[in-house]
Give the backbone structure.
Amino acid sequence: MLNKFTGLVIVGLTLLSGCSDNNVKPTTTKPVTETTSQTNQIQVGKDYHSQSNPEQVKVTHIDLDLTVDFDHKVMSGYAELTFDKKDPKATSLIVDTRDLTINSVTANGQKIDFDLHDADDFLGAALEIPLPDSGNKVKINYATSPQASGVQWLTPAQTAGKKYPFLFTQAQAIHARSFIPLQDSPQVRVTYKATIRTPKELLAVMSASNDPNTERDGVYEFNMPQPIPSYLIALGVGDLHFKAMGERTGVYAEPSILDAAAAEFEDTESMLIATEKLYGPYRWDRYDLLILPPSFPFGGMENPRLSFITPTVIAGDKSLVSLIAHELAHSWSGNTVTNATWRDLWLNEGFTTYLTYRIMENVYGKDRYKQEAVLGYQSLEADVTNLTDKDQILAIDLRGRDPDDVFSDIPYEKGALFLREVEQKIGRDNMDAFLMEYFQHFKFQSITTDEFLAYFKKHVVANYPDKLDMDRINQWIFEPGVPQGAPMPESNAFSIVDNARNNWLNGEVNANQIDTQNWTVHQWLYFLNNMPDELSLEQLHDLDRAFNLTESHNNEIAHSWLLIAVKNWYQPAFPRLHDYLVHIGRNKLVKPLYKALSKTVEGKAIAKKAFDEAKAGYHPLTVKANQGFVE
Ligand SMILES: [Zn+2]
């Protein structure tokens, strides 16, 4: 998924003294802590975030039949699980649930006594089902709760069209269990079929086969023939309409934003073709986008065949479409080759971030890629400054922790930087050949960091004994920080911006004398993100007068500016700030603002007012992530 994105974090002090983009200091590796011994205690491949028992009895297919009840905010029906008994001695199937009402469990038409265990705080409640005497299917009749952590129910007022309600699910990391009883682990891959029943005027879409010409009759059938991990099962229901963008690509959205979305993302087909050329065939048939209401808590979610996308990147100038490249890239890294546990998330996100940069370079050219890479690097630097040592490790120890609480740029940008270093050492052609083979070799499998390393050692490191060594690779993966000498992205386009900012800060020019006519959105973000922490009221007025930043229509530029406004108590921007917080639920756009506001009593009052007004429309994950700032 794309939780993070470039350019939103005010970076560390190294950049504030006006140094240009090409002399950002490398981050030194911090001393190795007890991580190595900790790592040894981890049972590699064990999923600490599921209570299910796939090693004994593994679910292989799910048949769903669910009715969506908007009045009661409940989905009800059944999930029939087909299983494979791996261990002849196994006596029960255990699946994960959270806040589900289990009405009955049957097999071969007969009721089975089941045991719903006590709920764990963040893992939910294990559902234990004795294996039936014959057959390999059990049917669970159940209903979700209105508070299901993986489902957001929106009233008509919270949608773009204001006429119909909307529902979407978000299963990653461990929320599928809140709307389907299943083995909620990325190492359990299932195929699925579903029948979704909705009010007649609405359309349901899923991470499965979607027929753009389906009859709108309130009963929709889906089939996902490729085995996918549970976190990729996804459903959207709303006043959705379809517009084709290319032969294999199209967009689903509410009518009022359909044309704008299709225009913004019209390069999706070119991205798909470019990615296939680099990394081998797209294995999922169609690639469509579902544009969600602004409360979607993430940038995007790579649900197979149908990425879920925040509308906050519809900027009118394609400036934020690297998000689409990211979600598309997951079709290879993440959906085709999947992390086996959440400790291995970097295999999904690091590879995908590396691929994203390559796709952007291929479709939009080197200049744009370089600008985005520098912003990504700065964001990583900020995380390395702020995170504890153990949270800077790619193969992170998440035992006893909710994966939602540990999201950072580390798996994304540090993972990508590691692969960039490998590319620089062995050459781009060799890197591409390796990646193509890797996706082919592990297709439709879920693998651990250790499995990746064994493969990498045999198929890459062994071929380049003079260029790669396992000590350094292990340092990248098992130690905090970024190794000395790591590649550092640079962009000449940012030198101009550094000069302009310096001249303005030194008082040599007024803001309206800066020649910004040809600046890209990324140059603007770089300009704002690297401002000193403190600016005078006069300076803020000067910037706002010259560039109308408070009214910026670009959500990322607005974010960067509002963060500066909060830090410097620039009150003319506060009505926009309130509006921004109330209308956008994408966590990475609102969280830094709430965090900055929470530092003063007056700021907290502003935050609380916005939060109280916005809360009903926020996703449960956004509420959870920000509640602490307003209490
Ligand atoms: Zn991602």
About this structure: The pocket of zinc ion is lined by residues 1-2, 326, 330, 349, 352 (CB under 6 Å). The CA atoms of residues 56 and 89 lie 8 Å apart. Residues 4-38 have pLDDT under 50 and may be disordered.
